[in-house]
Design goal:
single chain, 453 residues, mainly alpha, 2 strands, 56% helix
Length: 453
C-alpha cells in the first residue's frame, strides 16, 4: 500500500496527520479526537472512547497477557497475534521481545524457540497480515465488483493493522524480504486491476491503476481509524465508490523527469531538506547526522551550528509540516463562501501539498514515533485539532452523518491522497491532482465542481 499520514494518533498511515500514513502523507496523511457521538443502529461504526486509537502510541496500556496453563498447539499464532498488536501500537523499535513474551504469557526463552529474533518475527507478522488482508481480493468471479468489495472489506477489517505494519514497520526488514513482500502486494494489486477491468472494460490502464491503488488505500486507512467498525458495510461502500469513480484524464507518468537544480542557499534549510528526504526514504533510525551532512556537503562539527541533534532535525521537520497544514487551512477558510466551498478547497490544498511535499508527508506518517515524548504528544494534539476542523466542515455539510462515519471518510481521503503521492507512477502523471480531487470529493459526498483555482 502506498503510504499514509496518520491523523491524530500513532499508527500511519499512515498522518501523524497530516496526516501523512502515512501518508502519505501521504503515505502523507495520518486520526482525530473529533467531536464524539454515537453511531446510529446499523451504521456499522461506533466511536472509540476519548484517547483510544486503532494503533495507539507508546504510552498506551500494555496488552493483557494471554496466560496459558499448558502449552497451546497454536502458540506460534498467538505470538504473531501479540506481536502484530504491539508492533502496530507501539512501533517495532519500541516493542521488546520480552514485551511480546509477556503478552502471550510465556518466558523469552520459549519465544525464541519459535523465532530466532525480533526481525524474523516482524517478517512473520507482516507476511501474515499482508496475506490475510489481501485474501478477500481472490474469491470473486470476473467482473463481480459487488462481491469483490464485500469480501475485500471483510478481510481488510480482519487485519486492519496492515496499513501501519506495511507503511511504518516493514522498512525494518532486510531488503530482500521487503522486496519479496512488495512483489506479493503488487501481484495482488494487479489482480484487483484485472477485476476492475472485467467489470469496467471502458477503463484505460491509467485509471485502472489509480482506482486499484485507491481501493487498496481504503483498506490501508483502517489502521488509522479511531472508531470501532462493527461491520464491513461502510468500508465496502467506500471501496465501491472508489472502484466505480470516473476520474478525469491522466497523462503518462514522468518517471524520468529531471530534478530541479536550485537548492537552498541557507545551510540550515539545506540540511533540513536533506534530512527530510533521507528520513522518508530510509527511516529515521537508519540515517545519521553524518549522512545528512554529506548529502549537502557539510562535514563534522559544522552540522551542530544549525541543529543540536538528529532528533532536533526530526522535530523541526515534523513541526514545519504540521504548521503548514494550519496555514493552508487558514487560507482556505478566509475566502470561503460556505462550509462546502471551504471543504472542497481544503481537499484541493491538501492534495497539492501532499504531491509537492511527499517526503514531509511520509516523515510525519512514519517517523513521528521517534520524537521525544513532549514533541510527540504535542504533534498528536496538533493533528487531532486539524482533523477536527475537517470534521466540523463535513458535519455542517452533512448534519445527518454520524461523527463516526465522518471520521472514517476523512481518514480515507487523507490516506488515499498520501498513498498516491508516495507512488511515483501515479504522482507524476499529469492530471493526477484533478483526479484525486474528484475522488476526495466523492468520498466526502461533495459535488466536485467547481474545481478550486
Amino acid at each position: 500500500m502506498p503510504v499514509m499520514i496518520e491523523v491524530g494518533t500513532e499508527p500511519g498511515t499512515g498522518v501523524e496527520p497530516l496526516a501523512p500514513s502515512g501518508a502519505a502523507v501521504a503515505g502523507a496523511g495520518v486520526e482525530t479526537a473529533a467531536p464524539g457521538g454515537t453511531a446510529t443502529a446499523g451504521s456499522g461504526v461506533e466511536p472509540v472512547g476519548p484517547g483510544a486509537t486503532a494503533a495507539a502510541g507508546p504510552g498506551a496500556e500494555p496488552a493483557a497477557p494471554l496466560v496459558r496453563a499448558t502449552r497451546p498447539r497454536n502458540r506460534r499464532e498467538l505470538i504473531i497475534a501479540a506481536a502484530r498488536e504491539l508492533f502496530s501500537r507501539d512501533g517495532y523499535a519500541n516493542a521488546a521481545m520480552s514485551d511480546i513474551a509477556a503478552a502471550v504469557g510465556i518466558g523469552p526463552s520459549a519465544l525464541y524457540r519459535h523465532f530466532g529474533g525480533k526481525q524474523e518475527l516482524l517478517h512473520a507478522v507482516v507476511s501474515e497480515a499482508l496475506d490475510s488482508c489481501l485474501a478477500g481480493l481472490y474469491p470473486a468471479g470476473p467482473g463481480e465488483l459487488d462481491v469483490l468489495v464485500r469480501d475485500f472489506a471483510e478481510s481488510a477489517l480482519a487485519r486492519r493493522e496492515l496499513g501501519v505494519l506495511w507503511q511504518r514497520e516493514a522498512r525494518h526488514l532486510p531488503a530482500e524480504q521487503y522486496a519479496e513482500l512488495t512483489r506479493r502486494l503488487h501481484a495482488a494489486r494487479r489482480t484487483l486491476a484485472g477485476q476492475l477491468t472485467a467489470a469496467r472494460p471502458e477503463l484505460d490502464p491509467a485509471h485502472t491503476e489509480l482506482l486499484s491503488w485507491g481501493t487498496l488505500g481504503v483498506a490501508a486507512s483502517l489502521a488509522y481509524q479511531r472508531v470501532e467498525l462493527t461491520s464491513p458495510d461502510l468500508v465496502a461502500r467506500l471501496m465501491h465508490r472508489v472502484a466505480t469513480s470516473v476520474p478525469p484524464g491522466l497523462g503518462e507518468p514522468r518517471l524520468d523527469a529531471p530534478r530541479g537544480t536550485l537548492r537552498h542557499r541557507s545551510r540550515r534549510e539545506a540540511l533540513l531538506a536533506a534530512a527530510t528526504e533521507l528520513f522518508a526514504e530510509r527511516g529515521y533510525a537508519s540515517v545519521s547526522l553524518e549522512d545528512t551532512g554529506a548529502a549537502v556537503g557539510i562535514a563534522g562539527q559544522s552540522i551542530y551550528h544549525h541543529f543540536a541533534s538528529k532528533h532536533d532535525l526530526l522535530a523541526t521537520a515534523v513541526h514545519r509540516g504540521v504548521e503548514r497544514l494550519w496555514v493552508d487551512l487558514a487560507e482556505v477558510l478566509a475566502p470561503a463562501r460556505d462550509h462546502a466551498d471551504a471543504l472542497r478547497h481544503l481537499v484541493w490544498r491538501y492534495i497539492r501539498m501532499a504531491l509537492v511535499s511527499r517526503h514531509l508527508v511520509t516523515v510525519i506518517a512514519t517517523e513521528a514515533e521517534h520524537l521525544q515524548e513532549a514533541d510527540r504528544l504535542r504533534t498528536r494534539q496538533f493533528q487531532r485539532d486539524y482533523i477536527a476542523e475537517w470534521l466540523h466542515l463535513l458535519h455542517a455539510v452533512h448534519p445527518a452523518m454520524t461523527p463516526a462515519e465522518a471520521r472514517v471518510r476523512v481518514q480515507t481521503v487523507l490516506t488515499v491522497v498520501n498513498d498516491v503521492a508516495r507512488t511515483p507512477r501515479l504522482a507524476t502523471r499529469p492530471g493526477i491532482d484533478r483526479a484525486l480531487y474528484q475522488l476526495g470529493c466523492e468520498l466526502l459526498e461533495l459535488e466536485a465542481d467547481p474545481l478550486p483555482e
